[in-house]
Design a protein that fits this description.
Helices cover 41% and strands 11% of the residues. It is of the alpha/beta class. It has a single domain, classed as Uracil-DNA Glycosylase, subunit E (3-Layer(aba) Sandwich), CATH 3.40.470.10. Strands 1-3-2-4-6-5 form a 6-stranded mixed sheet, sandwiched between helices. A hairpin with a 2-residue loop joins β5 and β6. α1 packs parallel to α5 and α5 packs across α6. The chain is globular and about 45 Å long.
Length: 229
């Protein structure tokens, strides 16, 4: 099982030096004293890479004392309007997945993003686009501050953007369902709920069937860790 030092990822990494924008974000996201301070800093960002995109800052929802942290990708149009992550159709699917494993989406879970503004679309007819590598890098220190301040037992990464942000890896079909341990925190990439909406089959081996396997494993690990609390 892989191990990771989330806060010193270059110790055993071939990564190139950080860009100036990532270095600036590191200094801006340096060890907040409380979750409220972190959230207020994000709400008042003016120099981030998407500050001039004309989209809103979307930060989090759920219980800040929860021991299950879910990290999403970037806000979509519905999230941009309502100001909370996972409130559109993908969010409804995520809640159903959690409830299938007897997690209460409001009480047992805290949800945040990898990128905190919706990247505007660059193609005709598309309201938004996938975040760039630079955007993911920029917001990463804030994501790690959420991890430090929430201090969850289990972290779920929904999709490639979240996996790239936290694990610096992509390829969700091969990453999903596999645990990485980091300083007592257990991290698992899972399919993004929007992928399940695009692949509704429940046949064995389908994305929905694999998600069910994953969330059962999450429930097992969560119960095991909570019993040691």
């Amino acid at each position: 099982m892989p191990q990771l030092d989330m806060f010193n990822p270059n110790v055993e990494s071939d990564e190139p030096p950080k860009s100036n924008s990532s270095a600036n974000a590191d200094s801006n996201a340096d060890q907040f004293t409380s979750l409220d301070e972190l959230i207020n800093a994000l709400k008042n960002m003016t120099d981030d890479l998407l500050a001039n995109a004309g989209t809103n800052v979307v930060i989090s929802r759920g219980n800040p004392t929860a021991k299950l942290l879910i990290i999403g990708e970037a806000p979509g149009p519905e999230e941009n309007i309502r100001g909370k992550p996972f409130v559109g159709r993908a969010g409804q699917m995520l809640d159903k997945v959690l409830e299938s494993a007897n997690f209460n989406p409001e009480q047992d879970v805290y949800i945040t993003n990898s990128v905190f503004r919706m990247p505007p679309g660059t193609e005709p007819g598309k309201a938004f686009r996938k975040p760039t590598d630079a955007e993911i890098d920029y917001y990463r220190p804030y994501v790690f501050e959420f991890v430090r301040l929430i201090d969850p037992f289990v972290i779920l990464l929904t999709g490639n953007v979240a996996s790239q942000s936290v694990l610096r890896k992509t390829g969700i079909t091969s990453l999903r369902g596999k645990w990485t341990e980091s300083k007592g925190r257990w991290i698992m990439p899972i399919f993004h709920p929007s992928y399940l909406l695009r692949n509704p089959s429940r046949e064995p081996g389908s994305p929905k069937a694999q998600m069910w396997e994953d969330v059962r494993e999450v429930r097992k690990k969560y119960d095991e860790l909570m019993a040691k609390k």
